[in-house]
Amino acid sequence: MTSPHPTLLEQIGRRMKGARLERGLTRAELAERLDVHPNTIRNWEEARRSTIAASAQQIAEALEVDERWLVSGDAEAAQAGVEDTTTDIIVALTERLRDVQRDVADLREGQAVLRERVAVLESQARARP
Question: For residue 11, which of 21, 41, 67, 109 sits 20 to 30 Å off, Cα-Cα?
Fold first, then answer.
């Protein structure tokens, strides 16, 4: 089942695939330009590998698209010629990762609270005659 809210890697993979198809390139042809195996291209397009972020600049160059657009989908910045360095992109991705990690920690805390509540309710249910 596909999530209604694609992950960042899924979004990058979709943009990458779209740009590849618009240029009439096969996965094998793009893989040759990037000196990677065609399965790597498939894995990136299908968000199976996180190494795509580290390779964003090379991928953007091979597809002749703006790196910022590839990573963020920000078409206005790409059209204006705004250039982000790979470092800027990595910093942004790292910040987003930290946000996700905080969300996961919050969910785990909530899960622990719910487990405690369930244990109390089960105990109370067993105590009833």
Answer: 109
Round to whole Å and give the CA distance between 94 and 56. Answer: 15
Q: Are 15 and 69 in contact (CB under 8 A)?
A: yes
For 1-83, CATH number? 1.10.260.40
N- to C-terminal Cα separation, the chain: 44
Tokens standing for residue 121: 């309710």
Domain-wise residue ranges, the chain: 1-83, 85-129
Burial of 24 (0-12, 13-18, 19+ CB in 10 A): exposed
Q: Check residue 4 and report its DSSP letter.
A: S
Handedness of CA 98, 2, 28, 15 (dihedral sign): negative
- Given this model, what pLDDT does residue 1 score? 45
Q: What is the pLDDT of residue 65?
A: 83
Closest by Cα among 76, 71, 72 to 55: 71
User: Model-level pTM?
Assistant: 0.48
| Residue (of 53, 34, 56, 31) closest to 42 by Cα position | 31
Please identify every stretch of the chain with a pLDDT value under 70, giving residue numbers as ranges: 1-5, 49-54, 75-87, 91
